[in-house]
Design a protein that fits this description.
It contains 11 helices and no strands. It has 241 residues and is mainly alpha-helical. Helix 2 runs antiparallel to helix 3, helix 3 packs parallel to helix 5 and helix 8 packs antiparallel against helix 9. The radius of gyration is 22 Å and the shape is elongated.
Length: 241
């Protein structure tokens, strides 16, 4: 699929598509989502008429609209757009690039927002497989996907399956020395401690909550974590179930 527009296509894009995209952006800036989305739809229809149905620029526009529709809880239309974008990358014979991993991540978020976590799991797993192949098992890209995989398993009450994903994400964030990495690590450790608590592995949960405590300057920011920390301290030493 050619990425460069012909002179004729460029002229038509400038006349028919770009003004609509600029107008949509202005409505977005003003918080006028309905007008923004309507203009995005019109711009995409005109763009497809110019560049065809299998084009990277068209795919980018479809992703943007899909994310906006997801955020507006228009899940069925957003789902169809995500599937269409993935079909474009399949047609380009690029099903395993980082752009696809990013699209899959956003697609998985759609199913999470829709509370269809059993459908988000294979989406995240495919994204993670791409990230592991191209960036490494302990890459920053893999950390975010591991966290969301863990969260989906938690929503399905599959706590034992969530644990290894949270552990790997925590290990990745531990290796990053930025303030933001430290904050994200604390939140990831809290997730890990939560699944250990639900699995009634109180001694392990206590150790995880102690890590959260240390990362937050000896003071918990979240009441639930503080309460569970105290419960683990009692149950972990007394053997209470």
């Amino acid at each position: 699929m050619p990425e460069t527009l012909t002179p004729e296509q460029e002229v038509r894009m400038e006349a028919e598509v770009y003004p609509l995209e600029r107008a949509a952006f202005q409505h977005r800036q003003n918080g006028e989502k309905e007008q923004d989305i309507a203009l995005q739809r019109e711009a995409l229809a005109r763009k497809e008429a110019i560049v065809g149905p299998v084009n990277e620029s068209l795919a980018d526009g479809l992703i943007s609209l899909a994310v906006d529709l997801r955020d507006e809880e228009q899940y069925e239309e957003a789902e169809a757009l995500f599937l269409r974008v993935l079909s474009i990358y399949d047609a380009r014979q690029e099903p395993n690039c980082l752009e696809v991993a990013s699209i899959l991540f956003d697609f998985g978020c759609l199913y999470d927002n829709w509370e269809r976590w059993e459908m988000s799991l294979p989406i995240y797993q495919r994204a993670l497989a791409i990230e592991e192949t191209l960036c490494g098992k302990y890459s920053p890209e893999a950390a975010a996907t591991c966290t969301w995989l863990g969260d989906a398993h938690v929503e399905l009450r599959q706590y034992a399956k969530a644990e290894p994903y949270f552990r790997r994400a925590a290990e990745i964030h531990q290796a990053r020395q930025t303030w933001q990495g430290r904050y994200i690590l604390a939140r990831t450790q809290e997730r890990l401690a939560g699944v250990l608590f639900r699995l009634k592995r109180y001694a392990d949960a206590l150790a995880a909550y102690e890590d959260v405590l240390a990362l937050n300057d000896d003071k918990f920011r979240w009441k639930l974590s503080r309460r569970r920390f105290n419960l683990c301290r009692v149950r972990g030493t007394s053997g209470t179930k």
